[in-house]
Amino acid sequence: MSTWEIVIFTLIKILVIFTIMMLTVSYLVYFERRISAWTQNRLGPNRVGWEGVLQPFADVFKLLLKEDIVPEQAEKKIHSLAPVIALFVAFTTYAVIPIGPSFNFFDYNISLVVADVNMGILYVLALTSLGVYAITLAGWSSGSKYSLLGGIRSSAQMISYEISMGFSVGGVILLSESLRPIAIVESQGLWMWNAWIQPIGFITFLVSAFAETNRLPFDLPEAEPELVGGFHTEYSSMKFAGFFLAEYANMIISSALIITLYLGGYQIPFIDITTLGLAHWFEVLIYITAFFFKMGALLFFFLWVRWTIPRFRYDQLMNLGWKVMFPLALLNIIWVAVLIMVFNL
Amino acid sequence: MSLEIILFVILGGVAAVTSVIVITRPNPIISALFLVLNFASLAGLYLLLNAQFIAVAQVIVYAGAIMVLFLFVIMLLRPGNEEKIFSRNPVVKIIASIVAGVVFLQIVYMIFFTSPSNSVTGEVSASVNAGTVEAIGRELFTNYILPFEAAGFLLLAAAIGALVLAKKKFE
After folding, report:
1. What residue segments make up the domains of chain A, in order of their start?
2. With respect to CATH, is domain B1-82 assigned 1.20.120.1200?
């Protein structure tokens, strides 16, 4: 393929992924509201369209039509920049996550990942480390003490959990001997999922992912009763929607990452579908379906946890991050190293 | 024009402009943010040179960790007095100009009058592979194992020192 063909294919892939993500995000919000209602024995939004399926669009129009209020004390430019950074980080991370194997389309071999880079996992870590800026800047630029406190809390939380996240990924990299997401998926084979081989690493990564996305039980940055609304107290209209979108997009990214790193990516456990003699395009379709099925299950888990577990206190959160998760992640690396030495995995 | 040159011009331009903005803004937080942008464009330039690992490390370490710390310190300390010190005292200005001049001359000398200490020659594929994680890891853990471990010990010592200092303050 020539350079320009690669550019065009990449643009198409970006467009497809972006559309899928926007749709998933809006319906994730809908499901969040329905599931929370179900957990709390209420009805939830069921008026717009059949069972409320058009609710996300109604929400978007509502947010678009709302008045955009910027406080007088705010640093105006940075105040508008913060949600953009949040969205940028949330959407660009998806570039390296494979949703299926590569397939042949006429004369072209197309891989179902926007950018198949051999630094994929480090790229994800680099971008998540930039996510702190959105929240810190939002908190600072609002010119309000509640926002500032929320922002500072959140940055401390994200920096702390990034460390255990990075170390948990270390175990996966040791086993797969590669930083390429596709290679990591393929190294897990049909049933040797990293979640079975290194359960401690899986748990530390999962917990860190919850903390990184600021979801309950780690949603201290917004903690309504003590901080009004946290770092986005002073945000309204589309700028607020930006943070809202970014939070849900981050959930999608986290589940996609967990699937790629620990749950065998797009592969189906125990069944080698290449031996079934199906048409090539059908196999690819099955792989993609498997990926999105796993993603749906994980996203449901995210929502389920939110409406089940109460919030941590701030010192408990920090203790958990530094004194429990970090040592456990280190232990996991030793465990994986021992496994490699003993069983030559 | 090839894609590489277009990218180089864009990234180089951003890096040059942002580095000027960093030292001309009166508000330190704005300066810090432009420094982050500068680091990001530098990471892009490293990518063009096939130094993938250094590019990502640049973003993780400098943009993602060190600059966040900088921002925190600036936000919490509110260094409003700094501006006064620099604008009122003429001695500070003179010393600053001399130091800047010396550094500038040094850079000019290094760019135009010296030859690079070590350049990668030979096959293109060798230079492409020189920047990957595998190559850097192998070098670090074989040829440069002693300096690598020494740097690790230094960082550990610094971390313990910071802990001791912070604990003293609380007690």
Report:
1. 69-343
2. yes
Nearest by CB to B64, which of A117, A118, A130?
A: A130
Handedness of CA A14, A135, A32, A30 (dihedral sign): negative
CB-based contact A283:A271 (threshold 8 Å): no
Bridge partners of A105, per DSSP, are A108
Cβ-proximal residues to A5 (8 Å cutoff; 6+ apart), any chain: A108
Partner-chain contact A129 B63, CB within 8 Å: yes
Mutate to test the interface with B, among A96, A116, A130 (most CBs of B within 10 A): A130
CB of A176 less than 8 A from some CB of B:
no
Would you say residue B112 has pLDDT above 90? no
Cα separation, B142 vs B158, in Å, equals 25
Q: Extract the tokens encoding A331.
A: 């232990």
Q: Tell me how far apart the alpha carbons of residues A65 and A86 are, in angstroms, rounded to a whole number.
A: 22
pLDDT tens by residue, A129-139? 888 888 888 88
Which residues have CB under 8 Å from B165's CB, separation 6+? none
Query: Out of A3, A126, A132, whose CB is closest to B68?
Result: A132
A118 touches chain B (CB under 8 A): yes
Confidence of residue B16 (pLDDT cuts 50, 70, 90): very high
For B60, name the nearest residue in chain A, comparing CA atoms only.
A126
Q: What is the pLDDT of residues A196-247, one digit of tens each?
A: 888 999 999 999 998 888 777 777 666 666 667 777 778 887 888 888 888 8
pLDDT tens, B79-103? 666 666 666 677 888 888 899 999 9
The answer to whether residues A309 and A217 touch, using CB atoms and an 8 Å cutoff, is yes
Are A159 and B68 in contact (CB < 8 Å)?
yes
- The distance of Cα B24 from the centroid of its chain, to the nearest Å, equals 18
Of B56, B63, B65, the CB nearest to A119: B56
pLDDT of residue A243: 86
Tokens for A296, please give them: 């749906």
**Where is B38: in which H helix or E strand?**
helix B28-48
* 8 Å CB contact of B133 and A179: yes
Q: Going by C-beta distance under 8 Å and a sequence separation of 6 or more, which residues neighbour residue A64?
A: A237, A238, A241
Q: Are strands A108-110 and A103-105 parallel, antiparallel or unpaired?
A: antiparallel
Confidence at residue B154, expressed as pLDDT on a 0 to 100 scale = 96
Q: Which residues of B lie inside 8 Å of A (Cβ-Cβ)?
A: 2-3, 29-30, 33, 36, 52-53, 56-57, 59-60, 63-65, 68, 71-72, 75, 132-133
Residue boundaries of the structural domains of chain B: 1-82, 132-171
Judge whether A188 and A267 are in contact, CB under 8 Å: yes
Among A168-182, B74-88, B103-117, where is mean pLDDT lowest?
B74-88
